[in-house]
Amino acid sequence: MTSREDWARFEPTAIPTKTELGELEAWLDGIRPGKAGPAHLLDLGCGAGAVSRRVYEKGFTVVGVDINSDAVAEARRTTAGATFHVRDVASPRGLELDEAPFDGVVCQLVLSIVGDVSDRRRLLANALDSLRPGGAFYLSASGVSDAINPGYGRLYEQDFPLTRERHTYCSRDATGNVLYRTHHFTEDELRDLLESAGFMDVVIERKKESSSRRPGEAAFFLYAFSRKRLV
Fold first, then answer.
1. Exposed, middle or buried, 231 (CB in 10 Å: 0-12/13-18/19+)?
2. Is residue 165 part of a domain?
């Protein structure tokens, strides 16, 4: 069973959603629609549409894609002015969107839970292919957090025999069943991944915040800003 197959069956109302979006809001303000600015954005891994709704309310045209058909149905219900499609964000065939290319792509915490490194590379390739030349890319991801939260260190070690990847662990339900795998990135690892995918002008910010699934615990989050080459 792959991570994306797990996400395809996930209950839409239970999909973890980060509500503090200050970095995204600032990024959107920097590319506000206008005669010379982007207007057309893709929300890659939109879930039930919370981020798409915020983007739409700021005046952008929005297309959201997610592998979970029930989540996409909820997104359509709550943000009627945007367009949503059921898509595998890491599909080796690409996203097959008639609305492409986009002026900007938003990818909120999806890279951490999409699967293994090959899945991450395909997601980034699809993001790059979806952008117009010079288009902007906003990405947030979970950061390696064992230095500020020993619990994560224990999870990394506990699940290494299953994940076979450092800084990766399994999120589980109350009965111990695996829900999905989560990978925490170092800044260098995330930068290398973006640059090897073809993105340029990569800037990464690391911030200490509350964990998405454990609000009472600290975690690092990484915010990456980059662009597609003009030529």
1. exposed
2. no
